[in-house]
Amino acid sequence: MNNESAVQEEIEVTSHRPDPIKFEEFINRIKNEKNFPQNMNKVLLERYLKISFNDVDCAFALLKSGLEMRTKASYLFTDRDVMSSEIQTACSTFQFVPLPKITKDKYKVTIIRFPKCDANLYDSVQVIKAALMMFDASYTIYDYKDDGFVEGEIFILDVEGYSFKQFLDLAKNVKTLLFYTSFLQDTAPVVLISNHICNTSSVFDGIMGMVRPILSKQVNDLVHFNRYGSGILEHIEREVLPEDYGGDEKCINDLYEDWLKVFKTKRDYLLNDSSWKLTENM
Length: 282
Known about the structure:
Elements: H1 3-15, H2 20-31, H3 42-51, H4 56-72, H5 85-93, E1 95-98, E2 107-113, H6 124-139, E3 152-158, H7 164-172, H8 174-187, E4 192-198, H9 202-211, H10 217-221, E5 223-226, H11 252-264, H12 267-271
Parallel strand pairs: 2-3, 3-4, 4-5
Antiparallel strand pairs: 1-2
Helix pairs in contact: 2-4, 3-4, 5-6, 7-9
């Protein structure tokens, strides 16, 4: 590699990270907040600043909003044991799969789907809790092997196989669903590029009827519906997608098993309430 190429590569890698001077300012801002947890994950905090385009005030406001929202639904953020029977069962009734390859536009793709399962095992509150745990785990991992972050994220929600019985359980816990939707929309350290919903059905129309009123116009405009999973190929490169969606990657079940292995390594982090809990000194 010549010197010019090395310099260019260094610039590209650096652009995947937040500005180090701004990051130090961000850390000091957090340290001065006596009610904030003081042992938050470094990668998580870098992610907040990166998606805020190095605006410390913006990153701090987003972080604070997320911490405050967690206190309003603490039942979703305590006793988060990856190995508990409740979470293990939840993980068998849905799949959260961050795909290993990044798109040519430097976007990360995550698929969330509901494989056919015994509907009697489905507990929408535990599924939402497990999903939030998986989001939290993913936020502590760099998107690139060179320790950097993507420019945005694409989500694919595959609702094939989601039954009417599962819908009834979700409708019974609509407050938790609405909290989950608001929490991700308003506080997640993510630059949302698009949200593709595929294999839709009349059952899912009922779910959208519950959440659409609280979606911002910006998020609503980023939602795209695909009647079939293969329609995703019109938006995302073949080499990024699993073979189940017409792509070149291995099957979604194998990718999910790979992710679960990573997820389990985050057990101690997720069990540590002090990673997110505000103190009484507010």
